[in-house]
UniProtKB/TrEMBL annotation:
Protein name: DUF3617 domain-containing protein
UniProt lineage: Bacteria, Pseudomonadati, Pseudomonadota, Alphaproteobacteria, Sphingomonadales
InterPro entries for this protein: DUF3617
Organism of provenance: Sphingopyxis macrogoltabida (Sphingomonas macrogoltabidus)
UniProt cross-references to Pfam families, sorted A to Z: DUF3617 (PF12276)
Length: 172
């Protein structure tokens, strides 16, 4: 289960960390500073041999992160660099090699292989990136330690909801 969680965290971390800036000639799209609400939907989760109660637990955990509010200051928005985030990989312990990296003109379409904590997964992110809304589908595929292939598809939608909330808003 821990290794499956690593795969799940990989997709979420990459998507959340780099949803703001474009790197190609299609024009720079930056998220607007302020409060953003992110919803996560687990669209598909297939792991051979995993009991249904564990799958349900994973779905609850992923969707439990829905409704998360984040405050992004103008300084944070100005420093966002999706190209740098994509190159680093998840957290500080992994790296990704991208076979496709098209980010610009309000769209993201990337695919590649990421390594973290001794695991290798194929990952793809596809969707739209706008100043006030991001809608990205993240597909992660890899081998599970018990044998077989796993596949997870997440839908992440982030919407600008206005100025940062003064109390209780978390900063990233």
């Amino acid at each position: 289960m821990k290794q499956i969680m690593t795969i799940a965290a990989l997709g979420v971390a990459l998507a959340v960390s780099g949803c703001g800036k474009s790197e190609n000639a299609g024009g720079t799209v930056k998220r607007e500073a302020g409060n953003w609400k992110t919803d996560i939907k687990l669209v598909k989760f297939e792991v051979p041999g995993m009991p249904e109660e564990m799958k349900s637990g994973m779905k609850q955990m992923m969707e439990g992160a829905s409704g998360m509010d984040q405050c992004f200051t103008q300084e944070q928005v100005d420093k966002e660099d999706i190209a740098a985030e994509l190159a680093k990989g998840p957290g500080n312990g992994g790296e990704c090699t991208w076979s496709k990296k098209e980010v610009g003109g309000g769209k993201i379409d990337v695919a590649g292989t990421c390594k973290a904590n001794g695991q290798t997964v194929d990952m793809a992110m596809n969707g739209t990136i706008e100043a006030k809304k991001n809608d990205v589908t993240i597909t992660t595929k890899g081998k599970v330690p018990t044998g077989g292939d796993m596949e997870m598809v997440l839908q992440m939608t982030s919407v600008h909801t206005g100025p940062c909330k003064p109390a209780g808003a978390s900063a990233t």
